[in-house]
Request: fold
Amino acid sequence: MDPLELRLRNHADEHPVTGQQWSRNDLRACYETGAEMFGWARRDPEPRSTRRSRTLIGYGMAGTSFFFYQADCAARVTVRADGAAVVESSGMDLGTGTYTVMTQLGAELLGLPVERVRMVMGDSSLPAAPSAGGSGLTGAMGTAIHTASRHLFQSFLDLVRDDADSPLRGAAPDDVHAEDGRIVRTDDGRGEAYTAILARHGRDALSAEGSAESPGQDGAVVPTGPYAAKFAEVHVDQDLGVIRVARLVTAAHCGRVLNEKTARSQLVGGTVGGIGMALLEETVTEPHTGRIANPTLGDYLVAVNADIPRLDVRFVGRPDPTNPNGTKGCGELGIPGTAAAIANAVFHATGVRVRRLPIRIEDVL
Reply:
């Protein structure tokens, strides 16, 4: 059976053990979109059937998922009298783009330009946050910032509750939203600027805190992590057994993507690691002493620029209702499935099924 058809037939529309509904599972859309991008339908399924001169060409694919993880997190949001905002949480940005996406999210929730929002992180005196890991920080911190923003709206509305001069008098947080530095009634568009409220009530700033708790998985809906489909093309030298990855397509469901550039960069980086996992990287242990025999980058092979082909990434699917921002973590989604797709492509090219990594030249000769 065609590998793609096998996966589509066995796609689980609900949890196969408990019968719970997924919070959001768009793996099927990943398969279909990735196959179209890659041109999977033109593949001759017979192993060793496609070649160019002395080069065997193979096409392989894999489906992948990453577990759901969201730890407890807290954040604080402050709007100052000059109309600028500060968002604070003690989490750390390891280079994955947390500063960027949290600044964007804070600006969106507060209805402010990005340049008017400053994100402060990395200090244990700030509201507690989890470590950056498990592809869970964006969901946790984003939810905490969302909650803090709602609490801040409540604080502003409390100031004007009995203020006859405010068009927001008597409004509740569910009745309003933020835009252009103002809190606005959703029903009739009447509103007031943060700066005007603070000035009239003699306040230099107003702050509020919010938190996120990890949702339980014992209800009717089970929270799910991100999904992806990977499609790989490999070229294998028939005489020398040298394997090169010629093309790799990733179609990923990461819920709502807050910043496509940073999210794509994470998937590309993970895919590069997956290529190394499939073809290059191996820790060699000296059998008598247990010492690592290749402890330096002179001995331990990693993928370099010349090893990496064109990497195409496309995001598909819908926001996830597990958190109010609709996100799923995507940081670690790039690696799982990459080596499997490459190994399946090597089988299609050579007819040799390799079940260990990395795949060596001698495995396919």
Q: What stands out?
A: The longest strand covers residues 55-65.
